[in-house]
């Protein structure tokens, strides 16, 4: 049984509104405000004045907020005509719990008194006007609703807990505006309104906004809305128009158009494709599908190399990539085909065949960058969180491996050999991104001098004999063998035992399918291999 202390699921302090007033002071009058028991919140709606809370006078104007604790006197001295403002008084109430004695008070969630920021200020004004308008309600339910408005106001202020406004520079003001939009993207906004809230010209606000985000404000907001809509499409049964309204689109037709343009499919189709029961075909990307928790309905198979045994998909039917037409994939009744673009498929019109019987999506990224491909695949399948978690787990594991190698194998080199029946290939295409770029092991200079074409064409035994790399990794390629195991006869050559790494027992055979593959699971298994062999 769990014996730890379970913290309460509620805060130790609540705030209850006592009253609200709307005040106008002209330039010939000043006023002092104080309260021995309540906090006060001031929100300036118009005009300018000096405000002194005991730290010296500070200039306030439209958009200023001030929080004042009990027993603090506030002196407001208007100038330039008059100043108008709301003032709310509210009490702090301690809620005791089993882990906090009744006499022990928690610290206030208002650590600072004085001026605060609130962007956009219009949201504050709307809430204050509603609170003041309903402050005389007698009905219990109406009073509860007004208390909720008050809590929403406090939440809005506390979210931006940046004391002593205004912002020190324009970029900081826009950053505050961006942070607000991330949490309030469903609100109806315009560039003019956003710019007004931070006292800028619209063109000036848009320019700084784009410098900070790479997007114009409304595109940024729409992207936030689309991302939330994708989440709701998968996690709820809400109707499309309800989701559109919830994320900030008043027009369902416009929502469908924006969603389709951003995601590539209509909202309803996205929901259908990305349910957990979706039937997916993604040849050559099965590693990434499994990483995302999706079992493909069919997997690629090569008559010479076999299938990707390391994925554990023995029960999944295979598709012969050399002999079968893509049209035959229709018998697996896929909901979605996600394919990797290549010259071969484009030349043979394979994708057009797929489009006749299933939704077909083409990914054009370089397969070597499995992180980028995984993120793209996750975006299409609504599994971004799973992708980011998998990438972070790999990065943590990679960091540990690099630290071990740096301390024990610094400045040592490697080469990767792919033995075929008729030649010896020095592989760089599949293994260099992992060994050199991820792990930081140096490719031997002799191998570095080879062009990709020279590597593929093969090297001689005389070349291999002079290779003095500290480590050699090798696989046996069955592509051109005439009889089983023929490619293994290569290492019977007398020069093999003369290679320094072989003599020093630093030549390691690894699994062909794992190492000739780009993917999260393949890379993780390669890390295990390297640590086992070298450490």
Automatic annotation (TrEMBL):
SMART domains: HTH_ARAC. GO terms for molecular function: DNA-binding transcription factor activity; sequence-specific DNA binding. The keyword Lyase does not apply. Gene3D superfamilies: Homeodomain-like, Nitrogenase molybdenum iron protein domain. SUPFAM superfamilies: Helical backbone' metal receptor (SSF53807), Homeodomain-like (SSF46689). Residues 377-411 form a coiled coil. Keywords: Coiled coil, DNA-binding, Transcription, Transcription regulation. This is Transcriptional regulator. It comes from Viridibacillus arenosi FSL R5-213.
């Amino acid at each position: 049984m769990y014996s730890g202390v379970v913290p309460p699921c509620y805060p130790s302090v609540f705030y209850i509104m006592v009253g609200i007033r709307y005040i106008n002071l002209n330039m010939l009058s000043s006023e002092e405000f104080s309260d021995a028991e309540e906090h006060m919140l001031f929100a300036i709606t118009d005009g300018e004045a000096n405000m002194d809370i005991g730290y010296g006078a500070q200039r306030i104007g439209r958009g200023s907020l001030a929080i004042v604790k009990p027993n603090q006197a506030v002196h407001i001295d208007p100038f330039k005509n008059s100043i108008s403002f709301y003032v709310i008084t509210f009490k702090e109430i301690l809620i005791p719990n089993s882990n906090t004695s009744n006499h022990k008070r928690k610290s206030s969630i208002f650590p600072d008194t004085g001026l605060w920021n609130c962007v956009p200020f219009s949201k504050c004004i709307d809430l204050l006007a509603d609170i003041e308008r309903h402050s005389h309600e007698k009905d219990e339910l109406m009073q509860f609703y007004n208390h909720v408005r008050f809590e929403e106001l406090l939440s809005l202020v506390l979210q931006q807990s940046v004391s002593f406004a205004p912002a020190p520079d324009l970029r900081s003001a826009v950053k505050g505006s961006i942070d607000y939009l991330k949490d309030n993207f469903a609100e109806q906004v315009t560039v003019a309104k956003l710019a007004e809230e931070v006292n800028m010209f619209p063109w000036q606000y848009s320019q700084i906004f784009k410098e900070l985000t790479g997007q114009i404000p409304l595109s940024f907001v729409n992207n936030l809305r689309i991302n939330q809509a994708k989440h709701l499409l998968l996690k709820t049964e809400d109707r499309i128009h309800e989701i559109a309204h919830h994320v900030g689109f008043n027009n369902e037709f416009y929502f469908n158009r924006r969603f389709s343009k951003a995601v590539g499919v209509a909202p309803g189709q996205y929901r259908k494709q990305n349910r957990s029961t979706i039937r997916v075909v993604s040849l050559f990307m099965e590693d990434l599908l499994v990483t995302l928790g999706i079992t493909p309905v069919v997997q690629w198979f090569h008559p010479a190399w076999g299938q990707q045994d390391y994925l554990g998909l023995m029960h999944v039917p295979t598709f012969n990539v050399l002999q079968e037409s893509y049209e035959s994939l229709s018998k697996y009744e896929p909901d979605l085909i996600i394919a990797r673009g290549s010259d071969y498929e484009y030349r043979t019109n394979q994708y057009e065949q797929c489009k006749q019987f299933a939704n077909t999506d083409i990914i054009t990224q370089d397969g070597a960058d499995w992180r980028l491909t995984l993120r793209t695949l996750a975006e299409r399948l609504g599994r971004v969180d799973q992708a980011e978690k998998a990438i972070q787990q790999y990065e943590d594991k990679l960091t540990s491996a690099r630290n071990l190698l740096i301390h024990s194998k610094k400045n040592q080199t490697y080469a990767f050999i792919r033995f075929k029946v008729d030649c010896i290939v020095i592989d760089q295409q599949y293994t260099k991104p992992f060994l050199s770029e991820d792990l930081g092991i140096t490719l031997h200079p002799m191998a570095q001098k080879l062009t990709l074409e020279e590597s593929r064409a093969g090297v001689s035994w005389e070349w291999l004999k002079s290779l003095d790399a500290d480590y050699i990794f090798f696989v046996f390629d069955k592509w051109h063998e005439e009889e089983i195991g023929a490619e293994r006869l290569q290492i019977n050559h007398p020069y093999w035992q003369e290679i320094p790494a072989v003599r020093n027992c630093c030549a390691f055979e690894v699994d062909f399918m794992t190492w000739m593959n780009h993917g999260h699971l393949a890379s993780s298994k390669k890390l295990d291999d390297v640590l086992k062999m070298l450490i």
